[in-house]
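It is worth pausing here to work through a concrete case rather than discussing structure prediction in the abstract. The textbook approach is simple: state the sequence, then state the predicted structure, then interpret. We follow exactly that order.
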Amino acid sequence: MLGPATLAYLDAGDFVFAGTGACSGLHEVIHADKFIRMDNNSVWAPVRVLFVAVLVISIAALGVAAVVGGTWVVWLRGAAVAAASVWLVALTGQAARGKRAAYVRIRFVSIAAPIGIVLILLAPDSGYPVWMKAEQGVVGVLVAAVALIVNRRAVREAYPKGGKLR
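Step two, the predicted structure:
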């Protein structure tokens, strides 16, 4: 197990990381403009709120389908989006704890999902009623907002390839 580490603020607006114990030889200066604390909610709290909103909207859509009688396509899409939302909320927690794989998955989904939703909205005979297309439009906007948050340069730099968190 690694020993405790020290993170100190320097006058120049930078941080220095100094390891102790098993990582006592590790010293690194981290520039303040690239520093994101993984326990800081400034990135992951809004992402979690957006994914929970998608979950709530998806469950509401399933409720509407129950009342108005949705087709199998509506039930399948609604259930799939609700299940994906639960998974994405869980991934958000992992990414907030510094897991790069979770961050990469969130980035991929937040870019791919709105593109797929646009295709659903544009398809003339997709099998989705107008109310579900409207619901999917809202979901697409929420997920696109996630993409804007997680694809910022500072966030990308906090999850470098090779597994080293900055």
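Step three, interpretation. The chain has two domains: 5-35, 41-156. The longest strand covers residues 5-9.
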